[in-house]
């Protein structure tokens, strides 16, 4: 999380959980500052543009890190600054912040935020490649060794989605989130802004047997979108995740396994030797924002948009 540090030269791209979404939604963001702290705020008319242009299930991309304050302050002072920052967000605005500081959650209650939700992420941080591999469970290390795949680290977006959709068809699975045309815009913006990477695992020069899309912000890389051919070795995906973890750690970022709340993925994720870290989501909404979001969802569902 970014709220452990504060700098006057922070930009909106630094502050957002998913900075690649800024280009897609084209929001206007104001950085509100007080002494020793800052907070990002959408302009009101751009909020409506954001909610109408992005599908509801990727609205999380507009989540911002914050509020951000200096680290070396007394707890009472931190709460006071957090409260000032959160209170500076106009009541007409909907907002959604993420923070790893429980003091910010206390301040959010004082600022009358209507939702303060505790949550957890599963994060992998290792010193180097050997440390990462030795931290994995024995079976996972064995799977990676037996998979014996060649990894491409700079795979292109169009080929990624060809493989991704092909794998879904082979598995006879219904389309998932992030399979529509907007998904390719999303991925292209991410790569164009150098905040992500696409990995592919090959046994030959043909279609990859596993692919992985890993966007990142300043402090985290995210296990975001992946697929594996039904006949591929299970270690092919594990190999891609291993390489993505190593790349993230070498760049000074932690690797965040999104989706730990899904029971089917917990055992698999835990095999990578990371640890649980708490964070809080601070939300405040408005009637206009919620109404527009629901209308947007209903319209997309009625027209058969697989991204509803």
Distance between the termini: 29 Å
**Average pLDDT value?**
76
- Physical arrangement of strands within the biggest beta sheet: 3-5-13-6-12-10
Helix content: 40-55%
The structural class is alpha+beta
Percent of residues in beta strands? Answer: 15-25%
Total count of domains:
2
CATH architecture of the largest domain: 3-Layer(aba) Sandwich
Major sheet attributes? 6 strands, mixed
Order of helices and strands: HHEEHEEHEHEHHEHHEEEEHEHEH
Number of helices, counting only DSSP H or I runs of 4 residues or more: 12
CATH superfamily of the largest domain: Gcn5-related N-acetyltransferase (GNAT)
What does this protein structure show overall?
41% of the residues lie in helices and 22% in strands. The protein is of the alpha+beta class and 308 residues long. A six-stranded mixed beta sheet has the order 3-5-13-6-12-10. The model is unreliable at 1-27 and 44-61 (pLDDT under 50).
């Amino acid at each position: 999380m970014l709220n452990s540090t504060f700098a006057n030269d922070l930009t909106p791209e630094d502050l957002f959980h998913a900075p690649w979404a800024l280009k897609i939604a084209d929001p206007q963001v104001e950085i509100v500052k007080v002494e020793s702290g800052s907070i990002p705020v959408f302009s009101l008319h751009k909020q409506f543009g954001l909610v109408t242009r992005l599908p509801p299930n990727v609205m999380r991309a507009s989540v911002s890190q914050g509020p951000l304050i200096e680290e070396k302050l007394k707890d009472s002072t931190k709460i006071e600054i957090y409260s000032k920052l959160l209170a500076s967000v106009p009541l007409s605005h909907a907002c959604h912040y993420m923070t790893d500081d429980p003091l910010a959650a206390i301040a959010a209650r004082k600022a009358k935020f209507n939702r303060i939700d505790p949550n957890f992420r599963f994060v992998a941080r290792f010193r180097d490649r050997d440390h990462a591999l030795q931290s994995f469970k024995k079976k996972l290390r064995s799977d990676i060794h037996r998979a014996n795949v060649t990894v491409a680290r700079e795979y292109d977006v169009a080929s990624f989605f060809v493989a991704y959709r092909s794998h879904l068809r082979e598995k006879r699975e219904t389309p998932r989130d992030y399979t529509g045309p907007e998904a390719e815009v999303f991925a292209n913006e991410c790569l164009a802004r150098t905040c992500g990477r696409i990995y592919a695992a090959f046994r030959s020069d043909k279609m990859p047997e596993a692919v992985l899309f890993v966007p990142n912000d300043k402090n985290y890389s995210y296990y975001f979108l992946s697929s594996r051919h039904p006949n591929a070795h299970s270690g092919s995906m594990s190999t891609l995740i291993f390489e993505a973890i190593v790349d993230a750690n070498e760049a000074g970022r932690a690797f965040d396994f999104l989706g730990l709340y899904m029971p089917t993925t917990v055992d698999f994720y835990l095999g990578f030797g990371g640890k649980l870290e708490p964070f809080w989501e601070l939300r405040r909404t408005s009637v206009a924002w919620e109404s527009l979001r629901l209308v947007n969802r209903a319209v997309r569902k009625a027209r058969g948009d697989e991204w509803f």
